[in-house]
Amino acid sequence: MSGETNAVVLRGLKKYFPGTKALDWNDDDVIEIRKGEIHGLVGENGAGKSTTFQILMGIYDKTGGEMELFGETYNPQNVHDAEAAGISIVMQQPNFADNLTVAENVFLGCDKKFRNKLGLIDWKRQNQEAKEILDRLGYTDIEPTAVLGTLGYEKTKQVEIARALSTNPRVLLVDETSAAISKESAQKLYALLKRLKGQGCAILYISHFIDEVYELCDRVSILRDGKLIAKLPIDESVTPDMIVKNMVGRDMSSAVYRSDDNSSIGDVLFETKGLGKRGEFEDINICVRKGEIVGIAGIGGCGSEAFGKALFGYEMIDAGKMYLEGKEIRLRSPLDAMRLGIGLIPKDREKEGLFLQYGSVINIASGNMRRMSRRGIVNHAGERTMAEQSVKQFLIKTPSVDDPVADMSGGNRQKVVIAKWIVNESKFLIVNSPTRGVDVGAKYEIYKILEDLKNEGRGILLISDELPELIGMCDKVYSFKQGKVSGEFERMVFTEEKIATQMV
Amino acid sequence: MENKNTVVAFIKKNISLSAFFILFVLFSLTTQGKFFAVGNLLSVLTGSTDLLVCALGGTFIIMMGSIDLAVGSMISLGGVVVAKTYLATGNLLLALLATWGVCALCYGIMGLAHVCLKVPTFIVTLGMLSIARAVVTMVSGGSITMIDYDGPIKQIFGLRPSVLIVTFLAFLITWVVERYVLFGRYTRLIGGNENVARLSGVNVKLMKVMVYLFAGTTTALGSVIMAGRIGSGSPSVGSGYELDVITAVVLGGTAQTGGVGGVAGTLVGVLTIGILGNGLVLWGMPSEVQLFVKGLVVILAVAVSTERKPNMIVK
């Protein structure tokens, strides 16, 4: 392959941190990313995908190896070097200034461009240029003058994409973006990436979704534990199982969710009648039985997240009623909900589910302080034992139960959140996107946990925008559309197409 | 090499303790025995009692991610109340109760204003800083109320060994509360992440008011000790005191952002400030130099001990 068709060449990359080797390729391992190619980068959490991106962006200095950009040696010292060389990144969790406008965020760090003769910033021109970029990407409903913090998750993500493309990059790095957005926005993103590819842009794409890799990528490189394991073309010769097998290093059928056994289902556990909250959802009637997993399918902004929080007393309802085991309940706070045996595993694990600076002990105990104390005195030994049991039971990977969960991977963090709500014996669990940003291995472990909970007779409300997950796990699925229930499907009857048509 | 790293790591982790020992040794060696004498050390301890007691409540407030700027005005108000009530009634218990009542009321108001009106604690306590100072000036008419040397306030709260015992008990109780009582755990959780605490079933609003009431209680005790030590209830005492409290707490390793730290660290922080002031006096330094050095020490301590993360992409 001549240097001219390759946009980026990575050779023998190594990045060592004290105590761990985040990247440790063999010296002769090479990844070449061609111009006009979408190159997938997959691997479990901790495989070194993001570290690779950070080295490419000049955020980390590599310990060893070589990089070439369009045939020339490439050694960025910081993000500005990377951007000047034509590389841009869409991050998994963008660092935005929430208090600034969309336009200001798009051009964050390159405001100099908009200086007028007096040396002041020409806001009009900045807003105009931001508008042009947003329009070009099809994000016409985002106003450049809107304050970023007032936008929802989806739109924030779109602004992030706009920011990455504002520099007209020749190489685009995309870090697991579709995990956080709805199917609809993801489709828009795919179309956009394919267009960029047509224009000769080289795209390196981190994904957790095998389907997505097939839809989007031309080739895929697989990392595991910092090593480059395999490079595969995406064509008929490569099956999804081959990719998954290389990722996890063990055999795993990608079709296993749970058995169709329904014998666990019992009496009605939880019901809503005409539940509503202005601007979020209205007239919601759902029913969850004991030992049943009920799904709520909907794209971002359909009201399902607020609905889940309302059932936990974290959002106030203004119409309708809720019943737990036949009795009407009123929730004024999460505490009320917990006293009744309701638990919530929230969507935003880092902001709503975990105390990142604390270890597993405090995190798991935090939802169980009533049980972990007597007459107001904390039972230190008890909470430690509980955490140690959970770590064992849920296979949480951590050096010790006191190590901060901030140091854990996404999958292990999620397991800590789940442990917190399971040990407190909630009989009704609201679970929102439990496998968001979680690697394949941990995903199936989480599905197994949910199935076990079902078989114990607990009721589970699974809110998700991943249809295969809902179809694989649920006994019944409600589809949400613009704050209303648009359809109801029983297991054995539902298919992806049927539900999807009711979602969008 | 490995050895050196662990020493550095220990110093970074226990910056206050290290500073304390370094200063202790330094002053012991350079003051011809004036510093390292039982009498001197005891007087440093006694001189630190009011600050320690006030910083106990202050630690809880900062650990919760809030701040208390009113403590300086409040100890002045508390001191005047205890002195005046005792002068009027001659009843110690009544005087203590009145002081506690006034402090609890003011701190309760601050807590409620923060929780119900959703005003940041920085602003609420800044407001109370002015209000309490105004009230104490009105109540006292601008003049001090003397405390009888033979009376119980001076004898119990102003002289050692009794004041040391009272302070030690206050410290011990707070330490136990912080470590073993749900209240302490909830305070820490709120400081760790208020949202997550709420979603974990913590009654955040109630807890916040409770923490302020708790701080009101320690401030009441601190104000009685202060009045006992200086021998009067004074409307001018305690100006800038809130900064001493914050310095002691932060020097002791409690993160200003909340969630991390505790009263054990605060004890070391208070003692470090205590021997620093004492040592500088023994060196013959004027008070402005003490202030200067104190400011320098707190900035350096936080600079050295704070762990900085590189500007990384969080995954």
Structural write-up:
The complex is a heterodimer of chains A (504) and B (315). By secondary structure, chain A is of the alpha/beta class. Helix content of chain A is 32%, strand content 25%. Chain A has 17 helices and 24 strands. In chain A, the strands form 5 sheets. In chain A, strands 7-8-9-4-10-11 form a 6-stranded mixed sheet, sandwiched between helices. In chain A, strands 18-21-22-15-23-24 form a 6-stranded mixed sheet, sandwiched between helices. In chain A, strands 1, 2, 3, 5 and 6 form a 5-stranded antiparallel sheet that branches. The radius of gyration of chain A is 24 Å and the shape is globular. Chain B has a single domain, classed as ABC transporter involved in vitamin B12 uptake, BtuC. Chain B is built from 14 helices and 2 strands, in the order H-H-H-H-H-H-E-H-H-H-H-H-E-H-H-H. Chain B has a two-stranded antiparallel sheet. The longest helix of chain B is centred in the C-terminal third of the chain and has 27 residues, at 204-230. The A-B interface holds A 50, 53-54, 57, 59-60, 89, 91-93, 95, 175, 312, 314, 333-335, 338-339, 344, 346, 351-358, 362, 366-367, 369-370, 373, 376-378, 380, 410, 420 and B 179-186, 188-189, 192-193, 195-203, 259-260, 310-315.
